[in-house]
Amino acid sequence: MSEGDSNKTHFGYKTVEADKKADLVASVFHSVAAKYDIMNDVMSFGIHRFWKRFTIETAAARPGMKVLDLAGGTGDLTAKFSHLVGERGQVVLADINDSMLKVGRTKLRDKGIVNNVSYVQANAEALPFPDNHFDIITIAFGLRNVTDKDAALRSMLRVLKPGGKLLVLEFSKPQHEMMRKAYDLYSFKILPKMGEIITKDADSYEYLAESIRMHPDQDTLKEMMQTAGFEQVDYTNMTDGIVALHKGYKF
């Protein structure tokens, strides 16, 4: 059953009204936006750069393509795609959170990335783009925060061109028991302390750890993508499945 099929959904380990989740998630990212990049480096020990580089390589963007970096936050993927698609291409950095968009826009403009990137505040469940518009859609570490993931996947399928691909980079389920135990200890004991020290906000990082545990596992997300209409869906585990990259096509 889709999370959007009832009036309740998960916000971390809490059960909340479905129509309240977006505001609750927004408050988390308003709080951490300014230190988001620093926390990514610290809490992943820099490994998030490898995960994102693999995503870019898998996307195989070419000059002239249109790319949607959904839940793109501070623009790490957008910056790479901007160079790959060139002057004839287009990259849209979309995020539901205006604080994250502002940080991303400032960071990319400071890097001189201005000509082929646009910024759109958008809800993944109802994307404000035409049908059959993008060659590639990426959503990195954003799907778990969406209230109705099934609706979001259908919305992504709609705006993809036939032959286009969706890449979902997201925290997932470690494959081995020893890694699971170490990951739990890190997520619930160490990560909130880091958040408190760096962002002065332990609660937001407690939510982020909980939201990872509530996110569908690798095979469940694969089935969700297939149900939404994506074909040739598969996934690659990274760092023992702490993160997985799911790929699917529209035909």
What does this structure look like?
With 251 residues, this protein is an alpha/beta fold. It folds into two domains: 8-172 and 216-248, Vaccinia Virus protein VP39 (Rossmann fold), CATH 3.40.50; 175-204, no CATH class. It contains nine helices and nine strands. It has helices at 18-32, 36-44, 48-59, 76-85, 98-110, 149-159, 177-199, 202-214, 218-228; strands at residues 8-11, 14-17, 66-70, 90-95, 117-121, 134-140, 160-171, 231-238, 243-249. The strands form two sheets. A seven-stranded mixed sheet has the order 5-4-3-6-7-9-8, sandwiched between helices. Strands 1-2 form a two-stranded antiparallel ribbon. Strand 8 (231-238) and strand 9 form a beta hairpin. Pathway: Quinol/quinone metabolism; menaquinone biosynthesis; menaquinol from 1,4-dihydroxy-2-naphthoate: step 2/2; Cofactor biosynthesis; ubiquinone biosynthesis. Methyltransferase required for the conversion of demethylmenaquinol (DMKH2) to menaquinol (MKH2) and the conversion of 2-polyprenyl-6-methoxy-1,4-benzoquinol (DDMQH2) to 2-polyprenyl-3-methyl-6-methoxy-1,4-benzoquinol (DMQH2). One of its GO terms (molecular function) is demethylmenaquinone methyltransferase activity.
